[in-house]
From TrEMBL, chain A:
One of its GO terms (cellular component) is extracellular space. SUPFAM superfamilies: 4-helical cytokines. It holds the Pfam family Leptin. Disulfide bonds join 97-147. This is Leptin.
UniProtKB/TrEMBL annotation, chain B:
The lineage of its organism: Eukaryota, Metazoa, Chordata, Craniata, Vertebrata. This is Leptin receptor. It comes from Capra hircus (Goat). It is found in: Basolateral cell membrane; Cell membrane. Residues 239-333, 539-634, 740-833 form the Fibronectin type-III domain. PROSITE patterns: FN3, HEMATOPO_REC_L_F2, HEMATOPO_REC_S_F1.
């Protein structure tokens, strides 16, 4: 049985690790935060107040998106997201929160079409928004998020 | 009448087929059936079955009869009935010897009658036929074999098979039209055997295959009645392969086999075996659904013959041919199992049945030996039954190879007699250590393991298998039933290396080594590794080292690596640069620190510094050391002191002026911290006050001493400032007459060391230190000097002293008030006196001895007193190497 304290620490460390990984992907660093990219509404935005289930759902979407991206370095991030979701499940279990199984999202059905036309935009925006979401989650985890 | 009825039926073949109901086709049986044809004028009893209807559709389920053949001697169709010989053909089999004959009534409607096949066997042409679907479910085969007594037998036999695959919807009483039939020519061999191949699409395996044969033999064409089959119902598998027999661990005979291909339905197997032993001859025949069969109570010295065939388990099907006969002979001594491969630490057992001269030995008489060298204790035996003995080896140690033998030979013996056959015991130490390391980018985990412990087992191959759990490891790792193999590559150092990339940082990878061998497989104890806990970080970057100015500490700074995000501890090693750095270590446990300052003994030396890091919680490995950083020597502080200096005075008696030349030794790095840009002489006289004189890098300065007293001080200047502590020398005419050094003695110890000792008289002046000057006497040689602390009364002067030269030693007392009067000795004066005295003694003693014993006694007393005086000042021999081990109480040794 892993102490819940360790799970919490590992969750935060893993989030920081993913954030740093995204930072290390060179082409994501040059994206201007001032410019809004349209047509990619299926990529989750920022939600400062997140519950554990919402976090899990958000990460599941990102996992689906990353799995569709051809870049080699996003495979590792996708694996990290899987670990992170497992950690969130452990945290939820420690609070007796039921985390429903996340279903494949219908909105992502059009992902293939978008990827074909706008692969670069999708990757850059997805990683950028994922980074923001992770930082939100990191803050939220310090505040002991609800179910 | 009957003949007339058949003559009426002599219509064209195709016409007959159109009018014959489809369900009258002969259903192909799983066994062989026969086709018999005979001329129509043959007389036989023609029995109409009771209640037979002229409507052929009432004959459902009965095989149909045939019909006619036509003489093809001219190659033309003969419509004239009188010119034709008509053959009636029908199918029958050993199982059903009724031969149904098709005929036509007067009205042209078909009907069927049944005759006994014996009628046909008496005369006519006959063929054995067997049809089946091959196991690959792609080819339908009909095998036609001409019977020996066939009067039409000759070498121009040709057979054609005409067939049509009816669609499922078409399976109605209506027959297909003539043009629907496809024709294949059958391959016939010299021995009157033909094989017809009909390709069947997979999708039509359940359809009805309707066909008939057209056999041309001896110039006669025979048309068989139609026959039908559903291909899926007449599948004939290939014979089982890989028939194998072995004695199981429990002493049974295991017969096993395998099916050659995968069929889409389950098979049943018929096993036919016989046991031929001295006891009895036993035959058995069993049907099983598994691909093995256990035969109990195998006996030593017996032989077993086995054959197997297979058939579809459910539904219709045809037995395959029998497999090739396999014979298995058991030895007079049976070990089961005959060989065991096991892991060290495990417990195993061997069983044995021993047959000696046609008689099975009682299990109570059996003893066990190991390697024919060591009798196994009886406490390890068990009697299983009257004939089976068992030996158990508990907690086995790994087998030590003896030459090329990598196993232990276990012998089952009949008291004192051992059969040459033995069981083989292979015990392998499977404790293979698997160590893993995650790279500094947290994307790759490399695991290494060495197979050296199990290399002795020839024919084995090793494989790393793993199972990944979603998060963390269980407390006790175990081998999971679901595992994956991992490719590992042999490295030059003999280790295998397996790379996981990408990784799941927090998943538990349970790994073990599977040792596969023909005797079985063994697994090493599993280990569970979480990649996050075996991280070897990248070394810290931007490592810089400097000696801090004014503070004088070695400051090391660094940047932590990007990964891992955990808190890190750091180790610093530093040392003086050189070929072999003597490292000193310093540890930093504060993860936030990015620099450390350390005291070092030499601030003006070049230090080499490296830093490495590891997780603060102790998990993982130390990183490699960073690339070395080196300090640069710069001035870190003002010089600790000014240089030691002395003066040489040259006096011009005519002018009553004295030229003073100050001499000093360049300041070393340890004192200058770390360089001297220039020297400055600070003068002070009562008349002129204080003034500075810049000497630059020179170490000598001459000035005129005109006043009664003249004080000088030499300052060393570096980039930071002037030396803080400096020597002061006052030249005073009055003090130069103060004499406090009563005596000065010099004793040479060797050519590089002279001891000076002196005695002082009390003085009111404030003695700061001494200056000792020495030079070769009577030569204009360089004056050498050194500063001696005021507290010292004895001093070792190290120089290159030439034994034949005489030296002048001058000891100057330096007071705060000025330089006192020196004590000067010329060479080693006291020693010279002794030499002279000894010389005198050699002259005087003979005179004295010859003149007066009294005088001798007087001289003896005098001599003793001198000796005592001498030894008080004798130096400590430990300070001069040449003097060690000498007895200084013997005067002659000194001299």
């Amino acid at each position: 049985m892993v102490p819940i304290r360790k799970v919490q620490d590992d969750t935060k460390t893993l989030i920081k690790t993913i954030v740093t990984r995204i930072n290390d992907i060179s082409h994501t660093q040059s994206v201007s935060s001032k410019q809004r990219v349209t047509g990619l509404d299926f990529i989750p935005g920022l939600h400062p107040l997140l519950s554990l289930s919402k976090m899990d759902q958000t990460l599941a979407i990102y996992q689906q998106i990353l799995a569709s991206l051809p870049s080699r370095n996003v495979i590792q991030i996708s694996n990290d997201l899987e670990n992170l979701r497992d950690l969130l499940h452990l945290l939820a279990a420690s609070k007796s929160c039921p985390l429903p199984q996340v279903r494949a999202l219908e909105s992502l059905e059009s992902l293939g079409v978008v990827l074909e036309a706008s692969l670069y935009s999708t990757e850059v925006v997805a990683l950028s928004r994922l980074q923001g979401s992770l930082q939100d989650m990191l803050r939220q985890l310090d505040l002991s998020p609800g179910c | 009448m009957i003949c007339q009825k058949f003559c009426v039926a002599l219509l064209h073949w195709e016409f007959i087929y159109v009018t014959t109901a489809f369900n009258l086709a002969y259903p192909i049986t799983p066994w062989k059936f026969k086709l018999s044809c005979m001329p129509s004028n043959t007389t036989y009893d023609f029995l109409f079955p009771p209640g037979i209807s002229k409507n052929t559709s009432n004959l459902n389920g009965r095989y149909e009869a045939v019909v006619e053949t036509k003489l093809n001697s001219s190659g033309n169709y003969l419509s004239n009935l009188s010119s034709r010989i008509t053959f009636h053909c029908c199918f029958w089999s050993e199982e059903d010897k009724n031969c149904s004959v098709y005929a036509d009534d007067i009205e042209g409607k078909a009907f069927v009658t049944t005759v006994n096949s014996l009628v046909f066997q008496q005369t006519g042409a006959h063929w054995n036929i067997q049809c089946w679907m091959k196991e690959d479910l792609k080819l339908f085969i009909c095998y036609i074999e001409s019977l020996f007594k066939n009067p039409f037998k000759n070498y121009d036999l040709t057979v054609h098979l005409l067939y049509v695959l009816l669609d499922l919807l078409e399976e109605s009483p209506l027959l297909p039209e003539k043009g629907s039939f496809q024709i294949v020519q059958c391959n016939c061999s010299f021995n009157e055997c033909c094989e017809c191949h009909v390709p069947v699409p997979t999708a039509k395996l359940n359809n009805t295959l309707l066909m008939y044969l057209k056999i041309t033999s001896g110039g006669v064409i025979f048309h068989s009645p139609p026959m039908s089959a559903q291909p899926i119902n007449v599948v004939k598998p290939d014979p089982p392969l890989g028939l194998h027999m072995e004695i199981t661990d429990t002493g049974s005979l295991k017969i096993s086999w395998s099916s050659p291909t995968l069929v889409p339905f389950q098979l049943q197997y018929q096993v036919k075996y016989s046991e031929n032993s001295t006891k009895n001859m036993k035959k058995a025949d069993e049907i099983v659904t598994a691909t093995s069969l256990l035969v109990d109570s195998v006996l030593p010295g017996s032989s077993y013959d086995v054959q197997v065939r297979s058939k579809r388990l459910d539904g219709l099907g045809i037995w395959s041919d029998w497999s090739t006969l396999l014979t298995f002979t058991t030895q007079d001594v049976i070990y089961f199992p005959p060989k065991i491969l096991t892991a060290a630490g495990s417990n195993i057992s061997f069983h044995c049945i021993y047959k000696n001269e046609k008689k099975i030995v009682s299990s109570k008489k059996i003893v066990w030996w190991l390697n024919l060298a060591e009798k196994i204790p009886q406490s390890q035996y068990d009697v299983v039954d009257d004939h089976i003995s068992k030996v158990t080896f508990p907690n086995l140690n790994a087998t030590k190879p003896r030459g090329k033998f990598t196993y232990d030979a276990v012998y089952c013996c009949n008291e004192q007699e051992c059969h040459h056959r033995y069981a083989e015991l292979y015990v392998i130490d499977v404790n293979i250590n698997i160590s893993c390391e995650t790279d500094g980018y947290l994307t790759k985990m490399t695991c290494r393991w060495s197979p050296s412990a199990i290399q002795s087992l020839a024919g084995s191959n090793l494989q790393l298998r793993y199972h990944r759990s979603s998060l963390y490891c269980s407390d006790v790792p175990s081998i999971h039933p679901v595992s994956e193999p991992k490719d590992c590559h042999l490295q030059r150092d003999g280790f295998y290396e397996c790379i996981f990339q990408p990784i799941f940082l927090l998943s538990g990878y349970t790994m073990w080594i599977r040792i596969n061998h023909t005797l079985g497989s063994l697994d090493s104890p599993p280990v569970c590794v979480i990649p996050d806990s075996v991280v070897k970080p990248l070394p810290p970057s931007s490592v810089k080292a400097e000696i801090t100015v004014k503070i004088g500490l070695l400051k090391i700074s660094w940047e932590k690596p990007v990964f891992p995000e955990n808190n890190l501890q750091f180790q610093i090693r530093y040392g003086l640069s050189g070929k072999q750095v003597q490292w000193k270590m310093f540890e930093v446990y504060d993860a936030k620190l990015k620099s450390a300052s350390l005291p070092v003994p030499d601030l003006c030396a070049v230090y080499t510094v490296q830093v490495r890091c590891k997780r603060l919680d102790g998990l993982g490995y130390w990183s490699n050391w960073s690339t070395p950083a080196h300090t640069v020597v710069v001035d870190v502080k003002v010089p600790i002191r000014g240089p030691e200096f002395w003066r040489i005075i040259s006096e011009d008696t005519t002018k009553k002026e004295r030229n003073v030349t100050l001499l000093w030794k360049p300041l070393m790095k340890n004192d200058s911290l770390c360089s001297v840009r220039r020297y400055v002489v600070k003068h002070h006289t009562s008349h002129n006050g204080t003034w500075l004189e810049d000497v630059g890098n020179h170490t000598k300065l001459t000035f005129l001493w005109t006043e009664q007293a003249h004080s000088v001080m030499v300052l060393a200047i570096n980039s930071i400032g002037a030396s803080s502590a400096n020597f002061n020398l006052t030249l005073s005419r009055s003090i130069s007459k103060v004499n406090i050094v009563q005596s000065l003695s010099a004793y040479p110890l060797n050519s590089s060391c002279v001891i000076l000792s002196w005695m002082l008289s009390p003085s009111d002046y404030n003695l700061m230190y001494f200056i000792l000057e020495w030079k070769i006497l009577n030569e204009d040689s360089e004056i050498k000097w050194l500063r001696i602390p005021s507290s010292v009364k004895k001093y070792y002067v190290h120089d290159h002293f030439i034994p034949i030269e005489k030296y002048q030693f001058s000891l100057y007392p330096i007071f705060t008030e000025g330089v006192g009067k020196p004590k000067i000795i010329n060479s080693f004066t006291q020693d010279d006196e002794k030499h002279q005295h000894d010389a005198d003694l050699y002259v005087i003693v003979p005179i004295i001895i010859s003149s007066s014993i009294l005088l001798l006694g007087t001289l003896s007393v005098l001599h003793q007193r001198m000796k005592k005086l001498f030894w008080e000042d004798v130096p400590n021999p430990k300070n001069c190497s040449w003097a060690q081990g000498l007895n200084f109480q013997k005067r002659t040794d000194i001299l």
